[in-house]
Amino acid sequence: MSEPSKTKRPTQRTIAAKMGISVGAVSRALANDPQMAEETRALVQKMAKELGYSPDRAAQRLRTGRTQVINLILPPHEEILGFGTLLIRGISARLENTGYHLVVLPDFGPDKSAEQIQRVVRDRLADGIIFSRTTPDDNRIKFLLEADFPFVSHGRSELATPHPFVDCDNYAFARQAAETLIDRGAKRLGILLPPERFTFRQHLLHGFMTAVRTAGVDYEILDGISLDSDANAISANIQKRFAAPDAPDGLVLPGDVSGLAALAAIQDLGLVPGRDVQLVVKQTSGVFDLVRPKIASLYEDLSEAGEKLADLLLKRIAGAPVSELQYIQPIAGRPPASDTLFDPQLRAPSVR
Amino acid sequence: MSEPSKTKRPTQRTIAAKMGISVGAVSRALANDPQMAEETRALVQKMAKELGYSPDRAAQRLRTGRTQVINLILPPHEEILGFGTLLIRGISARLENTGYHLVVLPDFGPDKSAEQIQRVVRDRLADGIIFSRTTPDDNRIKFLLEADFPFVSHGRSELATPHPFVDCDNYAFARQAAETLIDRGAKRLGILLPPERFTFRQHLLHGFMTAVRTAGVDYEILDGISLDSDANAISANIQKRFAAPDAPDGLVLPGDVSGLAALAAIQDLGLVPGRDVQLVVKQTSGVFDLVRPKIASLYEDLSEAGEKLADLLLKRIAGAPVSELQYIQPIAGRPPASDTLFDPQLRAPSVR
DNA sequence: ATAAGCATTTATAACGTTAAAATATATGGG
DNA sequence: CCCATATATTTTAACGTTATAAATGCTTAT
Fold first, then answer.
1. pLDDT of A215 over the 50 cut
2. B127 vs chain A: nearest CA distance in angstroms?
3. Domains and CATH numbers, chain A
4. Percent of chain A with pLDDT over 70
5. Which of A6, A182, A324, B58 is least enclosed, having the fewest CB within 10 Å?
6. A17: how many CB neighbours lie within 10 A of its CB?
7. How far apart are CA B347 and CA B342, in angstroms?
8. Residue B18: what pLDDT?
């Protein structure tokens, strides 16, 4: 039983003993309770820093009921392209130095996801929840509103009660995309939409239809596939469509994967993108800057979305009114500034 | 003070009271302590299920010191293509139903990352750690070994003390890739490598050199860029290289982004991939199945890597010897079976 | 001088769990 | 019939924190 080096980590008791005051006093001093003499507070805080004290999360949590945890329900959607990572990065960035931790829960389908949320609320597993793939009549949102549990959804619902959300301006995207196609001379536009149940399907459709109706061009909604379909299914479907008469000469593709799949399909048919068919994609990743031929694209900045989601959630937890907690993110024409990389040798040319 | 509906969640005390036994008995019955009468155990467990009891994590953690948390240090690397997501998905899948939660910590550079790990160990923020971007002399590994704290690294070190890891067989990849290029008639091979400090650079180089030496062909290591370089930097560098004399006619590209960047560069030069230059990439995402012209590719299954990482970590926490906790993941020729999607309407053709 | 008032601090209890020690009950041997 | 030995359960204490009530000391007004 010789554990000489294992200096056990300091607690409030350690500080209290060292200073000859009570544990309660330490607790309040650290909490900056104005009831406490300014001097004592400073002294305790100094000592705490000296000893490298950090509060025990478990004890705090047990006592106060606050978990200091934010839950992210990670969408199951197999976006080939780092959907999750970017969002997570954004959330983490905002959570940095707040004392909050990000716990990722995988989402195994809509029903399972609801269950999980109930567990989180019931067992107080977190102080707030972030999730995506929102539907107009989202059960999760209804449940969370009812339970008065802090959350921010990525995407809007259409419930009567307003709720906090961050959503990309899909209306603007679809409209701009369609207008771009029309400008380039397309006579019959096609659009690929998300599955019926998602709210943003309506937004996309609305934006698309606005542009189409204004210009008076033909249009169609790609049938038999959705944004969630497997890439191969999308490719196959599009190939089939373009082999049939009256194929569109302009496509709106609101996702990286579907964009790639469509592009591949068109190329495989021997058609020339930009001549035979125009494409506009919504990308979150920057792939289309690296794919040839170059395709018109608009950006959804998921990293910023993540930051915003976390930001609004923290504000919600702090008690801000819902009216201040709704954010529609503008679509960007250019990619967000790329993240810092960690290859200093290459970044800063060696001086030697 | 009327909170009629808010049935507070049941604790062991609730169960104990209801059954007329002591709290301690409940605790041990739930833990399936063989000291406890079989009958009591069954009864308690039944009652617990009936009441919907679930243990308070904070209390357990405070009492036992076990956090039931796994930390993932999320690499800062701006892989455009879902590095993080796939890994996270794999880890989550393995952690499902184990009672462990996954907490994601962003990594803001190598030094910061070491700090974070120290905090985790010192403040017992988790029961185990997973991280990547391993170096031969990795300080984090040295520290964790020293502290005897459970971890699994993604990638190997070259330390004398063996440690748990999951690593992709980069030697095999580079060798197979180079051999493929040689088979296709390439006379001068180029390879893009990760920054010097990473262990897997050596593995890639070794595999590459083995193939090159055996075949006796020319080779070069792309200079001035690394796998971590910005996509634009890679494109620019490769364009410059191919404008100069004795350019390679075969390239090994061990990453999705670099593969795309190289492909774009070559196409922008007016060269024809597959005729003027052969490429073999290592992809983690499946993008290259959707990019034209088709490029030879090998797969690294990050989702499986994540599962394996979590699996080994759990075993390590349970006390398994290190010798059983090292896994070199074979490179795959075909993409891993794609994940389940959640668009049932499209998956199972409607019966109506 | 005494009581009331205020500022500061301490003491107590509790959050829900579990590990260890103590107790009660039953079983078997002498 | 009593002691020893299992077996099953209860009691006690603690993990580190914080909210509340109680106590202390000190000033000020009466």
1. yes
2. 13
3. 12-55 (no CATH), 69-163+303-325 (3.40.50.2300), 170-299 (3.40.50.2300)
4. 90
5. A6
6. 13
7. 8
8. 95
